[in-house]
Amino acid sequence: MSAPATMPAAQDSRPVRFGLLTRALGRNRAIVAGLAIVLALTLVALAASMITPYSYHAMSYDAVLAGPSRAHVFGTDGLGRDLFTRVVYSFQVSLKVAFGSVVLALLVGIPLGLVAGYWGGLLDGLLMRLIDMLLAFPAILLAIALITILGQGLTVMVIAIAVVYVPILARVLRGSVLDVRQATYVEGARARGAGHMRLMLRHVLPNSIGPTLVQATLLMAFAIQIEAGLSFLGLGVQPPTPSLGYMLQENHGYISQSPWGSLFPCLAIALAVLGFNLLGTGLRSSLDPRGRAR
After folding, report:
1. What pLDDT is stored for residue 19 in this prediction?
2. What's the CA gap between 154 and 25, in Å, rounded?
3. How many other C-beta atoms lie within 10 A of the C-beta of residue 79?
4. Residues in the chain with pLDDT < 70?
5. Of 56, 183, 211, 212, which one is least surrounded by beta carbons within 10 A?
6. Structure confidence at residue 25 (pLDDT)
């Protein structure tokens, strides 16, 4: 009689927990605001061709350095190109770099941090020394060095930023794994005969990944800043593809004549960074209450 009574409870527990988690995240204003900004920018980038009235490389010599107007909401640049159109298309580059670099870094950093933290000993020491070598280089200088070696372009920039992020994410996950691997439920699973792979993937990783996801979200904001800085230096995507950093480089010589040429790209960068920072801060307070993701 007892066996049939316990089955519905086991089946219903997962939806209840998922619902509680969803409501908890929904009550976090930082998550809601950050997610709204990120989703809005993503939709704008995906629908760029439908919401912009011009081509991003179309030039109008009759409207060079024109101020904001009904025809050109953000004004035009030194070549008569519509700034609103170029800002919208620039979000495509910024978001591709943010998501691409962090996802690539997670694919490499998670296995490194998981293996190092779970096994410890000599393997942990060796992997951490290699990671320390990468962390010794300033992030922007390491990215510039990789771009100089591999060449310029969007793909190379994503790879360069991902290399910078791998040691950061690996270290955060390793620290969480060192705590979780000693937990009672892990020891219980080991006593029941669970193998190392099952312990790592089914018990250790799901319970230690939270701080890493928080850190990954915050790193997306820094990726947008790094991309803008590299593009400003001429090391990012190349013309005619628009980039927020390259727009700042193009328009800084006209800042006294048309301050809007620098103002709107700066505001776009600030908005994107704000969205990811709010999302990361909200996730930290919900998933990482002890503040291990820094």
Report:
1. 52
2. 33
3. 14
4. 1-26, 287-294
5. 183
6. 57
Which residues are bridge partners to 76 per DSSP?
A: 82
Alpha helices in the chain (DSSP H): 2-26, 29-46, 48-51, 83-119, 121-135, 139-150, 154-180, 184-191, 196-198, 205-208, 210-232, 244-251, 260-287
The predicted structure's pLDDT at residue 290: 54
Handedness of CA 38, 222, 270, 93 (dihedral sign): negative
Helices 154-180 and 210-232 meet at what angle, rounded to 10? 160
Structure tokens at 150: 């591999």
- Given the structure tokens 């699973």, which residue do they identify? 189
Per domain, the residue ranges of the chain are 41-47+104-294
CA–CA dist 128, 8 (Å, integer): 46
Site of tokens 């709204």 = 36
Q: Residue 240: is the preceding peptide bond cis (ω within 30°)?
A: yes
Residue type, 235: L
Rounded Cα distance between 192 and 15, Å, is: 27
Q: Which amino acid is at 202?
A: R
Per-residue pLDDT, 289: 52
The 3-state DSSP class for residue 82 equals strand
Dihedral pair phi/psi, residue 25, rounded to 5°: -70, -35
DSSP 8-state code for residue 67? P
Prediction pTM value: 0.84
Task: Tell me the two tokens of residue 272.
Answer: 């994107």
pLDDT (0 to 100) of residue 284:
84
Token pair in block for residue 212: 């890493």
CATH of domain 41-47+104-294: 1.10.3720.10
| Separation of CA 130 from chain center | 23
